[in-house]
Design goal:
The chain contains 9 helices and 18 strands. By secondary structure, the chain is an alpha+beta fold.
């Protein structure tokens, strides 16, 4: 990991130069993992020149460099002086994630004259994966596929959606799932993923996911709701591929018996949209153009009223994946992102059909110099439960 971490620190320092910042202080878990290979309780500080310092409230780090123990952040200025670190004049802080009180506290401690948003900078840096990160995602993808292959074996006549999800979650843990489903932002609460059955796919959730579901309780309004699997409806599995710190995202559709022909038609349109994306997606292509092409195809096929939802239609068709399930880039009509080599993203054209359920596809892709590579490889047709 030494060379991997040094590469990331170097990328950060280059971004700091572009922001005219002379220091960056991080304390959010996934940013700490990104810069250390571990999660710890404390702070990571990177000066514009030289190596980083780690300030720990609990000694849990191993072999990362200059480590100092602290009880509270007010000790940081004195530790800076003792270790020959100049107090930064422009300090980058995780403005999108820190609480207001914590931000003010650090502002008072360092008394810097200028600050910048480390959250947005780190998200942009994490958007481009290193070769090591890509290999971690390949590992997650292989296990993700293996778990999905077992889903049909868990079906029992008369079972409820939550019963099926429990079986899938157990399978995930047996295969090494970390359990965490990490996401950026406040409206992204979910456990290990989502199983949407039949009409439950039409229910709008307050959380910022592509599709909703009522959930099993008003305090957790998302996903499986306790409804029975019944003939002629779909079962959409969108469970996390969190088998390393780097997640993959994949959706497959199953059916209880044979479905109405409209479901197979809409599912094929989703596969066609994915194929169109794969033919167009090369470095330099705007993510907004990919979204608009997907929407245009849905409209031409008469499915615009159920594209990415029914009662509420999500205005995106893809998103970055990595340490968190909703990284950059984003595929929305107003996205400013363009594809770059090293990006990894999930592309998920889906349709919600009244009285039938959700159909569609989701896979994780890697942007290469030539185009995109599909990382999650598994049968994409609707599979009937027997």
């Amino acid at each position: 990991m030494v060379n991997e971490l040094k590469l990331k620190w170097s990328r950060m320092q280059q971004a700091m130069r572009e922001e005219n910042a002379d220091g960056c202080l991080l304390q959010m878990k996934m940013n700490l993992y990104y810069v250390s290979g571990q999660v710890f309780n404390g702070y990571f500080y990177l000066p514009l020149e030289g190596e980083p310092h780690f300030f720990l409230k609990r000694m849990t780090l191993t072999s990362v460099g200059k480590v100092h123990m602290i009880r509270k952040p007010e000790q940081l200025p004195e530790l800076f002086r003792e270790n020959g670190l100049a107090l930064p004049k422009c300090l980058l802080l995780e403005g999108d994630e820190l609480s207001y009180n914590e931000y003010l506290r650090l502002q008072k401690i360092f008394a810097f004259s200028k600050t910048g948003n480390a959250s947005s900078i780190m998200r942009k840096l994490r958007m481009i994966k290193t070769p090591w990160e890509v290999e971690q995602m390949r590992t997650s993808a292989r296990i993700h596929e293996a778990v999905y292959r077992e889903i049909p074996s868990y079906y029992r006549v008369g079972m409820k959606d939550i019963e099926l999800q429990i079986e899938v979650e157990r399978c995930m843990r047996v295969h090494g799932s970390l359990g965490y489903f990490r996401a950026f932002g406040a409206n992204m609460e979910i456990f290990m993923g989502s199983i949407l059955v039949g009409e439950n796919a039409e229910v709008v959730s307050p959380f910022d996911f592509a599709l909703g579901g009522a959930g099993v309780h008003p305090s957790a309004p998302l996903g499986a709701s306790g409804m029975c699997l019944k003939e002629g409806t779909t079962v959409m599995a969108d469970m996390s591929g969190n088998y390393t710190a780097y997640q993959t995202d994949m959706t497959r559709v199953f059916a209880v018996g044979h479905l109405p022909e409209r479901a197979y038609f809409a599912h094929q349109v989703a596969l066609d949209i994915q194929s169109q994306m794969m033919s167009k997606a090369v470095p330099g292509v705007a993510c907004a153009d990919i979204y608009n092409a997907a929407l245009d195809t849905a409209c031409k096929m008469g499915l615009e009223d159920c594209f990415m939802g029914k009662a509420f239609q999500s205005k995106f068709v893809g998103h970055g994946v990595g340490l968190e399930i909703n990284e950059l880039p984003v595929f929305t009509p107003r996205s400013k992102d363009v594809l770059l080599p090293g990006m990894t993203f999930a592309f998920e054209p889906k349709f919600v059909l009244e009285g039938i359920g959700a159909v569609g596809i989701e896979n994780t892709f890697l942007v290469t110099e030539q185009g995109v590579e599909k990382l999650t490889i598994l049968d994409e047709n609707i599979i009937e439960f027997k």
